[in-house]
Every structure is written in C-alpha cells, then in structure tokens.
Amino acid sequence: MFYTVIGTQWGDEGKGKIVDWLSFKAEAVVRFQGGNNAGHTLKIKNKIFKLNLLPSGIIRGKKCIIGNGVVLDPWALQEEILKLKKQGIKINSKNLQIAENICLILPLHKILDSINESNRGKESLGTTKKGIGPAYEDKIGRRSIRLCDLSNKKILKRKLDNLISFHSLRLKKSKMNINAKKILRDLISIYKTLKKFSYPVWITINKLGKKNKLILFEGAQGSLLDIDFGTYPYVTSSNTSSGQIFSGTGFGLKQNNKVFGITKAYTTRVGAGPFPTELNNKIGDYLGKKGKEFGTVTLRKRRCGWFDANLVKQSVLISGVENIVLTKLDVLDELDELKICIGYRINGKKFDYLPFGENLQLKAKPIYKKIQGWKKSTYGLTKWSDLPAAAKNYIKIIEEIIGVDIAIISTGPERSQTIDRKKILGNL
Ligand code: GDP
Ligand code: IMO
Ligand code: MG
Fold first, then answer.
1. Atom of ligand 1 at shortest distance to CA of 222?
2. Which residue from 6, 9, 22, 41 has its CB within 8 A of the most atoms of ligand 1, so it is best to mutate?
3. Which CATH number fits domain 264-427: 3.40.50.150, 3.90.170.10, 3.30.365.10, 3.40.1190.20?
4. Cα(107)–Cα(38) distance, rounded to whole angstroms?
5. What class is the 103-194 domain?
6. What is the dihedral of CA 362, 356, 265, 20, to 10 degrees?
7. Ligand 1 test: best mutation among 5, 8, 17, most atoms within 8 Å of CB?
8. How do the domains of the chain map onto residue ranges?
9. Contact between residue 30 and residue 285 where contact means Cβ atoms under 8 Å apart
10. Which ligand is closest in space to the CA of residue 414?
11. Which residues belong to the active site?
12. Contact predicate 139/159, CB 8 Å
C-alpha cells in the first residue's frame, strides 16, 4: 500500500505537518522530487522542527528515503543532519537512505541561480537561490555529479572539471570564481559522512512494496509550481505532481495507491508569477499575519489570497487526488465573509480552468462565490462535530466544487490539532 502527499497550490500548504501525522503507521517516508528549496515546519509538543531535504518521517524515527528525483546539496544535508541531531533526532544508516544515483547541487549551481535571476531583471522568478534550476539543467544535460561519483576521486575530478569548464564562460562573465580544489576536497570529506546512506533505494522501496508495507511519498512544493502543469515559467524545475513518484524513486508498483492533496483553506504564493485571487488589501495582510505566512527557506513574506477552488480542482485531476487535507482552517476564524473562486473571466470569456498562456493567466479575473464566516474559534479542534455550522458549510461547498472529499482538517500547527474526519489514521 502506498500513500502520496502532494501540495495542490503553490507550496507551503502544510505538507510537513500532515506527512508527520500520517507517518504514524508508515514503514518508510520517501522524497521524490525537489531539493532544499522545500521548507517544512513541524510543531510537536511545542518543539519546532524545520526540514528541507530530510523526509518529515525522520522526526518519528521512520525509515526515510531520498529518491533519485531529488537534487541533493551535500553541504546543506550535512548541516540539516547536524541541526536535527542537536534537537535529539536519531539519524543513522538504518533510518536514512539516499539514492546513489541522485544528482548533486554544487556551490556553482547556487551562483548560476543568482546570475539567472539577476539576468532576468524585472522578470526574475523569485527562486529560493538554492541552485535547484541549474542543478536540474545539468541533470538533463547529462553533466551532473551523482552521489555514487564521490566514491572515486579520479572520476569525480574529471566530472567536476568538465562541469566547471562547461559553465566557465558564464561564471567568468559574472566575475565569479569557482575554487575547484576546495569543492573537490569538500566533496571527498563530506562523502565520508554520507557514504553510509548511499544506496540503490529502488531496491528497498520495491521490497517494502511487495511486503505490502505502507510507504508514504512526500511531495515538496505544489502542483502550481510543477514544471509542466504550473504557472510556467514561474515554477520550480521539477514535476511536483504525483506521477513523479515512479521515476523519482524507481518504485514500480501501481496498486493500492491513495493520493492526499494538501490544501490550505486560502491561497498563498512565494515568489513571482500570476496569482488570480491575490489580495493586496487588509484581508491579504490579515491572512499573512494570522497565518504567519513567511517562507521557511527564504523568510520572504508570502502573498495571500482567497481560496481558488478552480486551481485545486485542476490539481486534483492531474495528481489523481482522492482525499483533500484542508489545512489552516483556523486562520479564517475571524473573517465576516469568505470568498471561493469558482472560475475566471479572461478577456470577457469564462474559464473553468487556468489556461497556460502567461498573458491570459495575468488577466484572469476571479468569479467568486461568497460564503458567511463563522466568527468562532476552530483552533485546535479535533472533532468534526465541534466545528461551527458555517465552517462545515465552507468545507462542503469546497468539496462540491472540486469533486473530492475533504477527509482531514487541520486546525493548528501541532500534530494533535487535526480532525480525522474519515478515520484515515483510525482505519490504517
Ligand atoms: P509545507 O511546505 O507544505 O510543509 O508547509 P510549511 O511548513 O512551509 O508552511 C505551513 C506552516 O503552517 C507551518 O509553519 C506549519 O506549522 C503551519 N501549519 C500547518 N497546519 C496548520 C494549521 O492547521 N493551522 C495553523 N495555524 N498553522 C498550521
Ligand atoms: P515547500 O515544499 C513555496 C518557489 C519559489 C519560486 C519558485 C522557483 O516548502 O512547499 P526554485 O528555488 O524552486 O527554483 O524557485 O518556486 N518555491 C516554493 N514556494 N514552497 C516551496 O516548497 C517552494 N519551493 C520553491 O519561491 O517562486
Ligand atoms: Mg514550505
């Protein structure tokens, strides 16, 4: 059996909290795309854990796997492991495996990310500058250094020289110096720590799949940041939709799957790009403040807006989402009236999906359905029956529009502040 958790919006939907919650009965938790551009915050009994590369199951000591679809910054991973160990989390070769064919992010990728962004001028994407895009470019360009390459100094040196030489023109033009010797030294030294985690993880995952153990695939980012289906070019450089779990890990089984679409009760976005329901007003500011909408990775202020059911409906179809997990419902508690976007008007024409053209996306005017607020606290509620009638109504209207059940509702950042409406954990 396997569960997949994906974000249905522009990221930061609360995936980390839900993966931690669902991982209670999981045998393994697996990342399949993205890199340390992800920032997942978990709150457990007042302790805060921030994860970028490590799957959120690490907090419960579950077997965690970083699949080949991820791009790995070895320096960043080393730091993250140290930070978590200081917080008392056990990380060893029994509970962490990293695909030996994973492609690496090197310091030059971060530099190239910054150069790309500044070259775009006013049209910069607002990336996290973690080198994600350039690292994936090198992967597809067949120039990457992979984790397994670190075991052989000769091969590593040849590959590193080739890579630096490939990028040398652009790096020189920007007067950025790359210290190849230091990178080589660092990589060899870091490999001493990382070697024990390096493994052909596809073997582990397929073995677990055969045993019918619960495997939890943890998506990073969100559907609208998908390189194919997102608001291109204002997207990340990986496929964030559920289809990526197979090529991103080598998992070959396709039955007994359930996809959970993690969905914030309103919408946020960090970085540039179209956002039809964005609120540049008091309500937007209110959502940002109450929802503490600041990026985990870059600490940037997240843009906030009304719930866009049109977009979520799209993500549900693309990722085969069977159950929605609605998060941060409590953030809406004090609003008099709420709005749900049910379609767009673009150049006088009605759309029940977001067309791909950038010019059309920028012109999309939301068509809203108004709903009464509940003006009562839902913070920390754990029972469906305790929700105010108007909050239940908001949830039911969203379900009707997007056509799938909202199975789980999150009412606060803590693991325990969760309503298991359809007994998902209960029935596992
Ligand atoms: P992710 O990237 O999808 O894992 O989401 P982030 O961790 O970047 O952002 C979600 C933030 O909201 C985190 O700080 C969580 O602790 C917090 N959070 C998650 N669920 C809830 C909730 O239901 N209510 C509130 N108030 N905060 C939540
Ligand atoms: P989690 O997993 C929100 C955004 C960046 C930028 C765009 C491209 O925490 O939900 P990149 O560095 O990936 O090339 O940046 O994607 N972005 C995210 N936004 N949550 C994330 O991850 C994100 N990861 C990347 O802000 O707009
Ligand atoms: Mg995040």
1. 3
2. 41
3. 3.90.170.10
4. 18
5. mainly alpha
6. -130
7. 17
8. 2-102+198-257, 103-194, 264-427
9. no
10. 1
11. 12, 40
12. no
Q: What are phi and psi of 134, to 5 degrees?
A: -60, -35
The residues that bridge with 5 in the sheet, in sequence order, are 218, 260
Structure tokens given for 385: 């029956």
Count of positions (residues) in the chain: 428
The position carrying tokens 């052989």 is 152
Protein residues whose CB sits closer than 6 Å to any atom of ligand 1: 7, 11-17, 39-41, 43, 296, 327-328, 330-331, 410-413
Tell which atom from ligand 1 comes closest to the C-alpha of 411. 23
Angle at 171 between CA 168 and CA 175, to 5 degrees: 125
Q: Is the shortest distance between the CB of 38 and ligand 2 below 6 Å? A: yes
72 Cα: distance to centroid of ligand 3 (angstroms): 17
What string of pLDDT tens digits covers the 428 residues of the chain?
899 999 999 999 999 999 999 999 899 999 999 999 999 999 999 899 999 999 999 999 999 999 999 999 999 999 999 999 999 999 999 999 999 999 999 999 999 999 999 999 999 999 999 999 999 999 999 999 999 999 999 999 999 999 999 999 999 888 888 899 999 999 999 999 999 999 999 999 999 988 888 999 999 999 999 999 999 999 999 999 999 999 999 999 777 889 999 999 999 999 999 999 999 999 999 999 999 999 877 788 999 999 999 999 999 999 999 999 999 999 999 999 999 999 999 999 999 999 999 999 999 999 999 999 999 999 999 999 999 999 999 999 999 999 999 999 999 999 999 999 999 987 76
CATH architecture label of 2-102+198-257:
3-Layer(aba) Sandwich (3.40)
